[in-house]
Every structure is written in C-alpha cells, then in structure tokens.
Input
Amino acid sequence: MPRIDLTLPELREYRPEIREPADFDAFWADTIAGARAAGGELQVERVDSPLRTVDVFDVTFPGFAGDPIKAWLLLPAGAEGPLPAVVEFNGYGGGRGLPSEHLAWASAGYAHLFMDTRGQGSGWGAGGGTPDPHGTGPSSPGFMTRGIEHPADYYYRRVFTDAVRAVDAVRTLAQVDAARVAVCGGSQGGGITLAAAALSDGLVAAMPDVPFLCHFERAVGFTDRFPYQEVVQYLAVHRGAEERVLDTLSYFDGANFAKRATAPALFSVALMDETCPPSTVFAAYNHYAGPSDISVYRYNDHEGGQAHQWLAQAEFLAATAP
Output
C-alpha cells in the first residue's frame, strides 16, 4: 500500500485552519454542566473472575443526561490505593468486551477504567452493554451521521460527555488518586481522548493513538474508507447539506479540542493509514496546546504501533506522572 498523504517533513509543519464555531466553548460548558446536574448513580460491583493478578469490577456510571454507562474497572490484585488511573476509550464499533482483554494497565500498577461506547459493541470484539436511548433524524448506516444536522443532536455529543463523566467517576473511587488520572484510546478512542483531555481539568496525561474524528473537512472525501465514508454517503443523498454538516462536525473536531488540551500528550500516527490519514492526525497534533510528542510508524496502516505503542505509552506515563 503506497503512502497517500504529505511527506513527513510536510506533516510536521501541517497546521491548517480548522473550522471552529464561535460558541464552541459555551456549547461544551453547557453540555458538561447539564450532564453533571442530571446526576445519576455510580455502581461498582466486584466480579468473580478466573484472573488472579487483577481484581475486576463491573462499573455503571452516569453519562450524558444521566444515562447509565457501563465500564470495567481493573485493579492490581489486593491493591488498596490510592493508585494512578488510566481511563481508556474504545475503537469504532467495539464494546467494552471482557475483562481479560484489558490486563495491561492494571498489570503495570494502574487503576484502569475501560469505558463502553454507547450504542456500539456489535461490530467486532466481545460485545458491549450500553444502549443509546436518544433518537436521531435520518442517517446513513453506522454512527457518524446520527443527528448530524445539528450539534445538540449529534451522536458524539453524548459519547464525548460520557468520557468526561467517566473521568469524574473514576476520581471518586477510594482506590484512585484523583490528582493522577490519564486518558487514552486508539482510533475512535483517540478522538474521544482528545475531547476528554480538553473538557476535563487536571489530567496528568493524554495518549491519543492514531486518532479518528480529526480535521473532518480534509478527512471526508480524502479517504474512501469507512467510517468517514459514512459522511460521504450521507452527503451524496442529502445534496446541499454540506455546510450544515460541516458546521455540526466542527463542534466535535479533535483539532479544536487539541487547541484546548494542556495535559502532556503522546500521540501516534501511521504514515500508511488510509482510515485516519496522517495529515488529519498531524492537524490535531500540531494544534495541541500542551507539551506533546508523537510516535511515527512509517510502514503501518491503521493498526499503527499496537503493543509497541503501549510500551511507549507506559514509559511516557511513568515518566510524566510517576
């Protein structure tokens, strides 16, 4: 597969103008305040498990509009804390799966909260358990165009709010040091990470891995891969909706969140990535407001660095927030 994007020197200088609504900050302040005001119950139940090196807890926390959101909490076996914590977000179409799929961070000594993504969990993996009870207008198959005609209705308004509330929830746990919380995720999870990093105060680190949901105006139509292609399909049918759709997406663009995120960050990018083109990742990286670094995988597609990137993240986090 050939490289399809700018050269690496060009990517490192790529800092495009990003469409940004004038009320971006007010929109998100009102959204998060509304979710917090909605309340809801945090439930943490220990789960019997064959795992011996970690303790497993089934978590339900209040997300957007107080909706119950599922998560797994894994702790090093017998740990009393307070522990540094990592909140992780998943890739597109996947659910929280099974606890045995999420052992690395707890094995490294962290409290690890892995958030289910509302409405997803039936595309791959071992499934999810969180519905999305909010309806939308016309959309193409998938999640990218649900409610895309208005930012208040857009699907990712709910998901990004869930992510902030996941950080809120983990900070209340007795086993967690609330002052040492990091966020991470790959692909869709990387885009969610950027939103959480901008909308949550006091994080010690953000680790967006090959992030999706960045620089929409370049990504939509630049790559013919899904999920961005869902937006192309929608616009091919809803002729004349382009400006309205792009205005909505600007409230959810990872580059706009990057401008507001200040926690130390470690990004990653794959130069042969046709799902999240490298220029869209660098658009967010080059706009990032806090100290940041990026791992570059020259010969990889969207899989990026995989376990190699996790090792880089573990070293980064240990040095950033010991």
Q: What stands out?
A: The first helix runs from residue 8 to 12. The domain at 8-320 is CATH 3.40.50.1820 (Rossmann fold). The chain is about 35% helix and 20% strand.
